[in-house]
Amino acid sequence: MNMRTELPKPAVDFERLRLGPCRVLGHTMVLRPPAFADFDTWRRLRLRDREYTEPYWITSPLSWSARHTRKRWVRECLMRRNRARARTDLAMVIEVDGQFAGQISLSALDFTAKTAELGIWVDIALARSGAATLAGAMLVDYGFDVLGLERVVAPICTENVPALAAAERGGFVHEAVMAEYFDAGGKFKEHALYGLLACEAPPEGLVGYWSAYLEESHVAHHSNSVAGGSMSQRVHLAVDALRAIVPMATYWASEARERYRRLRSCATKAVVLHARSGSVILRKLEVPGPCGHEGFALEADGAVVGECGLQQINEFQCSAELFIDHIAPDADPDCVEAAARRLVEYGFGVRGMNRVWMAIAADDALRTKVAERIGMSCEGTMRGYLPGPPRADRDLWAITAAAAER
Ligand SMILES: CC(C)(COP(=O)(O)OP(=O)(O)OC[C@H]1O[C@@H](n2cnc3c(N)ncnc32)[C@H](O)[C@@H]1OP(=O)(O)O)[C@@H](O)C(=O)NCCC(=O)NCCS
User: What is the per-residue pLDDT across 21-73, written as a single tens digit (0 to 9) for each?
Assistant: First the structure.
């Protein structure tokens, strides 16, 4: 069974975590949990900065304004609190001189693979002041030094010039170009994969390095701080909390519905996939795996010759990883290819994915040939992709639903 042993999650309280203050160029940056009271500023900045953000944000049938209502902000705060508790995501508000100035997150936290994904947006009024660089440095340092992460990635839309430049300037290394990686701004868009390994961080830490760099190279910009908060502020906070009651109730109800839907969809149903070559059958393994994992026994001419399936099935990104494991040394490569082809069809046709990918070692001739034969393209190399020591690189191969149609 392709099940890895899960390592324990670090005993840190994400919910109440505050990072900083970091003082650079006479200004103070703090990373803190999002609060209901941030709604007004969040909405104002998001609506004002729409042209810089919407093209790279997940596609939605809602208007940009309708995506930034109080109900939506409360929902976002509760969802992030939930994920903080589960320690799957660490979502923070970027505060500059006491003002809400954007959001930054480490999502898809995986304490077994020691990896996470960085996401960020900043108040465009602060653009090119080093805000993103410093916020990124604070959170990634925390990830490397406290959470024990060893690899942080940033998938960036190849049309997003500021973010590409900020990642490169921030020390992230370009690793791959991923076709139709994410449905953003109305369509599936190509993304560049950037990665940073803990072993590549400067000895003084990213914050130490970038603070010095910014002090040496940057001009100052505006500041005022709000310590403690006045009486009217406390009333404001109380009103915000009252206003949040209905959205909170709606959120919990939808969460319960979503949990039930996921449980129902994860229920292991007897699935048997017949590959075109007729002699190859994929029989769903009834052993319950993590949500987003579907394992199959690979049978050729009635004998089990290996295991394969889809894992990391990500409905948010509409993508899934195809894995082929424990292949018998004498297994016929044509059977493995037939099984992989059948899984791609299953991924697109049944699971509704837009992209199926494989992580393959450069010297793995069997899986490389299978990937080529089923129409996948090699998009690049993911450095230190698998935990070590030493961490191991893997080539990224992928096919999209559109490419499979061709
Ligand atoms: C991308 C983003 C986070 C950059 O934030 P920022 O605070 O301006 O970044 P920094 O000031 O730290 O910039 C670091 C470097 O990135 C590069 N850069 C940033 N903005 C740039 C731009 N508009 N054009 C070209 N290069 C740019 C520069 O090299 C800059 O260094 P320099 O100013 O010393 O030349 C910000 O533009 C943003 O929030 N965009 C909208 C949301 C988004 O795209 N998020 C990323 C999704 S993957």
Answer: 998 778 899 999 999 999 999 999 999 999 999 999 999 999 999 999 999 99
Residue 285, ligand 1, Cβ within 6 A: no
Dihedral sign for Cα atoms in the order 198, 202, 203, 206: negative
Could you please state the CATH topology (level 3) that the domain comprising 257-405 is classified under. Answer: Aminopeptidase (3.40.630)
Following CA atoms 262, 88, 2, 383 in sequence, which dihedral angle do they give, to the nearest 10 degrees?
A: 130
- State the Cα–Cα distance between residues 379 and 129, nearest whole angstrom: 33
Q: Look at residue 191 in the predicted model and tell me its pLDDT.
A: 98
> In the chain, which residues fall in CATH 3.40.630.30?
14-221, 257-405
Residues in a beta bridge with 117? 107, 153
Pocket test for ligand 1, best of 27, 42, 94, 122 (most atoms within 8 A of CB): 122
Q: Is 136 in the pocket of ligand 1 (CB under 6 A)?
A: no
- Provide CATH code, domain 14-221: 3.40.630.30
* Cβ of 221 less than 6 Å from ligand 1: no
Asked whether the beta carbons of 47 and 120 are under 8 A apart, the reply is no
Residue 120 Cβ contacting ligand 1 at under 6 Å: yes
The one-letter code for the residue type at 153 is: V
